[in-house]
Design goal:
The chain has 139 residues and is α+β, with helices and mostly antiparallel strands. The chain contains five helices and five strands.
């Protein structure tokens, strides 16, 4: 495995490899895509990203979007951001719905209701339990 590919966690790699119509095929090189870093968000959102990827794959196939490509998946200012190119209104709608769903789900555990919190200057969507753990680990 190339050094660049080691930056991607196992779960993100599994999702990315399962949906080549969305993420392209490995290797994901830093010179070509921000996906070389995998997903820059908490694992609590991974099931949501996986579900979105399945929906996007179906749309890409149904609508013949041969140039669709996810460019980056990350948390920014406490919100899920899924950047892509080559999509259409259907892909944009699905991405928006996933981003809205993530706004109410804990980024870290994914099992509890999350809300946007400022943890010492760091914005994250988290539940109270995960917020307490995160604050403790930063102390």
């Amino acid at each position: 495995m190339q050094d660049q590919e080691r930056r991607i966690g196992d779960e993100a790699r599994r999702i990315m490899e399962a949906f080549p119509e969305v993420f392209g095929k490995p290797p994901w090189r830093i010179e070509e895509t921000n996906l070389a870093w995998g997903f820059s968000c908490g694992k609590g959102w991974y099931p949501l990203i996986e579900r979105l990827s399945a929906d996007l794959t179906a749309i890409v196939q149904q609508d013949g979007l041969s140039r669709f490509q996810a460019r980056q998946v990350k948390q920014k200012l406490g919100k899920l951001r899924f950047y892509s190119k080559g999509g259409n209104e259907r892909t944009a709608d699905h991405i928006l719905q996933a981003e809205l769903e993530a706004a109410g789900k804990c980024e870290h555990c994914g099992t509890q209701h999350g809300e946007l919190k400022n943890l010492g200057g760091w914005l994250t969507t988290t539940c109270d339990d995960c917020a307490a753990i995160l604050l403790k680990s930063r102390a």
